[in-house]
Structure formats: structure tokens, C-alpha cells
């Protein structure tokens, strides 16, 4: 009986207690084996980000302003700064689930933005970037599948600080993007980088901008091109996110609660585009990204 009890519990088939004892006792080797299995399960959970999102006051205290900020960016100032929401959420939830929470909301914002810019994009640029985004997304899947939460935190933090450095460098004239003739191969290369950074932290804007700024597009064509390529990459990311377990019951509940907030942020962005100086908006963005990026890197390394 003792042997059968041990096997049913997943322990060693050899009983540890003397013959005649009624109460089964775990062997020392059994305890070590159980601890090893438990530790492996915890490591697997951390590596794949399969932990819960606590929908508490702390989560919504960051999620509501983060989603509004993303909506304002999408609706009025281009989508470049919209990814600031993911690093903010990654301060209170696992980073993989932070991007999982944001993706359906960003897709909702994309739908709201598609109509005003329908067919106003530069199709050669959009097509080449969209093709290049496919291998970039595949590389992002590999990163999420085989690395830990801390590695993803480090990647998101580094991308956030890199975005700030790129934007400040452009503003100060330290980084210039000279006009250049269209090259499909170059566009696909930047599309691959954009697809990867978009998959990791919804930060595909800067790599795509390096290509688009060199094409001297009109403001409307530039905005229309960014709208269509980020709609495409967000659709492209949906099924890998689903397969990786980044959508859970808790993230679905969060999406339902935050969907009106996302739409409100988009409409506020349309209004803010006319009354809020772009310089002020992006200065706020840089401060937020510097703080959150540094904090994520600190959490990953310490």
C-alpha cells in the first residue's frame, strides 16, 4: 500500500518506512526530486511570462494614463511615442503581459486612425517595410520564447532609452537622415528592425522613421504610411502573442475596461494636435521613457 501511495503521489516507487507502517513518508530523494520539478516549473513560467496580471488599483493607476497617452500619440502626434505605454505597464506586471495588454488596444486605435488616412500612404515604401517586418516579428518570437522576463525588461528598457537618444539627436541636429533614392532592400532592412522592436515593446516607430524621413514624403503621406504599416505589424503580432500565452483572462478583462479609455485618448489626440505644442508633448514623452527605461534596466540587472 505504501508503495502504491508513493507512486500515485509522483514519488519514488521504493517505500522509505519500515514494513507495517500505515502513514507513508517521503524519502529525502523524493523531496529533492519534488523541489527540482517545482523549481523547473517556476523557471518555465518566468521564461514564458505565464503569470497573472493583478487588476488592482496600482495596475489601473498606471494603465489608464498610459493608454490615454498612447491614444493621444496615435491620434494627434504620430504613433512614434505610443509605445511609452508598454514600459509604464512593465513596471507593475510581467513585461510580456504588458505588451499583451497593449496590443488589442493599439489595434483598436489603428482602426480608428485608418479611415482618415485611407490610401494616403506611399505604397512602395509601405509595401517594402511591411515585407521586412515579417522576419523581424519572427526574431521577436524567438526572444520571447527562449529568454527570461529580465531579458525582456532589459530589451524594453534599452529600446526606450534608444528612442529618447534618437529623437533628441535628431532634434539637436546630431543625427541627420539625408534624402536618398528609394531602395526596396534598404526599406525591408529597416522594416525587419521595426518589426522586431515592435514585437518586443510596440516601438517600431524609430527604425521605420529612419527610412521614411529619407524619402521626403509629404506630412500626409508620411502619417498615412505609418498608419498602414503599424496596423499591419500589429495584426501580424496578434497570433504569435496568442500562441505565446500573452493573452489571458485578466488581460481580456483589462482590455474591455480600457477600450473606452483608448478611444477617448485617440479623440483627445486629434484635438490636442491643434492646441498642444508638439515640442511639449514629446518632452513629456522623453522624460517618461527615460525614467521607465532606466527603471526597467535596473530591475533586470539588479
UniProtKB/TrEMBL annotation:
Keyword Transmembrane in the entry? The reply is: yes
Region annotation Disordered: where it falls in the sequence: 1-24
Sorted alphabetically, which keywords does the UniProt record give?
A: Cell membrane, Membrane, Transmembrane, Transmembrane helix, Transport
Q: What is this protein called?
A: Probable membrane transporter protein
Report the GO terms under cellular component: plasma membrane
| Top-rank taxon, per record | Bacteria
> Which protein family is named in the record?
Belongs to the 4-toluene sulfonate uptake permease (TSUP) (TC 2.A.102) family.
The family database entries (InterPro entries) matched by this protein are listed as:
TM_pro_TauE-like (IPR002781), TSUP (IPR052017)
Name where it's found: Cell membrane
Entry's transmembrane regions: 53-72, 84-108, 128-146, 152-169, 190-209, 229-247, 254-273, 279-298
Broad class of where this protein is predominantly found: membrane
Membrane topology per the entry is: Multi-pass membrane protein
